[in-house]
Amino acid sequence: MTILVSQSSKSAKPLDRINGFDYLRAIFSMLVVFWHTNALNSITFSDRIHLVIYYSFALLAVPVFFQISLFLFHLKWESKKNYLKYRLKKLTTLYIVWVSIWILFSYANRDINFLTIIIQGNWEETLFLIISGAYSVSFFFFSLIALTIASHFYQFFTVLKLKQIEVEKVTYGFLTISGALMVGIPILTLNTEGTSFLRYPLLMEYWSPINFIPYIFTSFLIANEFKQKKVTFKDPKFKLKIAFLGFCFLVATVTEYHYLYDPEMWRYLLPPYNRVSLVFGSSLILYLSLLPQPSVPQIIKCLSDLSLGIFCIHSYVSYSFLFNTSALSHSVIKFLLVLGLTISLVTVLKKVSLIKHIV
Q1: At what angle do helices 276-289 and 164-188 cross, to 10 degrees?
Q2: 305-348: pLDDT as tens digits
């Protein structure tokens, strides 16, 4: 499937065989583990270096995965009949399976009792539970379902209502508006302590689909350019676009650091994914991954094939009893062990025919 994993070279169609995507899936699935294990916490760096590594690079993982998935959806939308139905079936299955497992895992671990929340009929908490994927990495699947549906209707809108010459202008307009709202709403709701956005979790939490709306339009634009064979350094406009995105990523990163970062609380005043630098950065990465790549090394292909499982399973490994000991408290050691054990576990699960499609 084209969410995080690639198909084998024997069965893959040309649109699935973008070598650059194998690199992205391999690298950024590991960065998800890197982020969740706080891999650099035991190493003495300046706060600024920690900040850049964690917030400007590691946090690009989820936006990059959204970009890849939505890009492929836009690319195949016209050519595949009932493609929306096919995608939603796959995504819904992943969401239901992994959220159910996480709820049971949390109950067994005596963590948050999600079952009590559901049984008591607290509708607000239940709504947040559903959207956030029970406050797990499965929020990605819920948001991707929402964004995929929105992308489908946007495709219909552009086909039925817009002339070809208007499509790009209108899409850039929607991209600008969605980006401004993504950043502007939490800024406007900040109080003097810089925390009031936490009172509006449906709008501002890291798991809210609203944070990821700009990726509908960035992936749409990039997919159209790819179909028109404009993603090449032979095109002077493409060179200019790459330079522009790189410049905007750096400027946005520096601006966010200077004006939206609270050094005393060691966090940004914005929710982690409500930062325009991630839109610029992930768009730049998607463009570069579409350029012709040499043959992919076997280790990268292997990690790419395992990326969905790494994404879904690493949290269980990280929170298991194996790591509830001070002997494994060093962050780099924990990261390497969690990554290694997760890769081993996913490799084994991939061999089980009944579940191989969800890992």
Answers
A1: 140
A2: 999 999 999 999 988 756 665 556 678 888 999 999 999 999 99
- pLDDT tens column, 263-281: 555 456 677 898 999 999 9
Burial 1-25 (b: 16+ CB within 10 A, else e): bbbbbbeeeeeeeeebebbbbbbbb
Q: How far is CA 232 from CA 37, 139, 222, 236, 281, in A?
A: 37, 34, 12, 9, 18
Residue 131 region, left (φ>0) first, then alpha (ψ -120 to 50), else beta? alpha
**φ/ψ of residue 17, rounded to 5:** -105, 50
Q: DSSP secondary-structure letter at 265? A: T
Residue 156 tokens, joined: 């219909």
Q: Which two tokens stand for residue 321?
A: 């009893």
Burial 293-310 (b: 16+ CB within 10 A, else e): eeebeeebbebbbbbbbb
Q: Tokens 């609380």 label which residue?
A: 265
